[in-house]
Write a structure and sequence with these properties.
The protein is of the alpha+beta class. The protein has one domain: Electron Transport, Fmn-binding Protein, Chain A (Pnp Oxidase, Chain A), CATH 2.30.110.10. The protein is built from three helices and nine strands. The chain has a seven-stranded antiparallel β-sheet with strand order 2-1-5-8-9-4-3. Strands 6-7 form a two-stranded antiparallel ribbon. Strand 8 and strand 9 form a beta hairpin. It starts with a helix and ends in a 28-residue tail after the last strand.
Length: 168
């Protein structure tokens, strides 16, 4: 197989990117995630894949819940903040609007939509681990005062210029 063939496929797919936040042991972290999706219909479950090199992954190992945020297409700045900085070295939440969600979850106010899920299971896939989540709460832009009307979500193509901020 040629790497260009799979690259062409993934470029056409152009999935949404997500910001995943975690809290545990009095700490908070968040990262930009390009690998995620619903993985079960009944019960509804969603999987997010976190890089083992990422500080958010290490904090997520101790967390009970994760919050998954879709970003509006016009918030590339949030994607860059969570994708290019390391939570171990900087507070990515400093100066951002956020509120506490269910079970102490950290919810970004400027998200297009979000849900918090209890961690059901984890699956090692190589350099990433899937955190399978059972959703317990969700909201979308129509339910928040900060967004009006329908907006498109930020995609992998929109965020392709962001270089990962986790340590090498």
């Amino acid at each position: 197989m040629d790497d260009e063939d799979i690259a062409a496929f993934t470029t056409l797919a152009d999935p949404s990117v997500y910001v995943v936040t975690a809290t545990a042991d009095g700490q908070r972290a968040g990262c930009l995630v390009g690998f995620a999706g619903q993985c079960s219909l009944d019960p509804v479950r969603f999987a997010v894949w976190l890089s083992k090199a990422n500080h958010t992954y290490r904090l997520a190992l101790a967390a009970h819940t994760l919050t998954v945020h879709l970003l509006p297409r016009d918030r590339h700045d949030l994607a860059a903040r969570f994708g290019s900085r390391c939570s171990a070295e900087t507070d990515k939440f400093d100066g951002l609007a956020w509120h506490e969600g269910p079970e102490g979850a950290l919810v970004l106010t400027d998200a297009l939509a979000w849900f918090t899920g209890r961690i059901h299971d984890r699956y090692d896939g190589g350099d990433h681990v899937a955190f399978v989540l059972d959703p317990i709460a969700a909201a979308h832009a129509k339910e928040t005062a900060d967004h009006q009307g329908d907006q498109a979500a930020l995609t992998l193509h929109d965020a392709s210029d962001i270089t990962a901020g986790h340590p090498a």
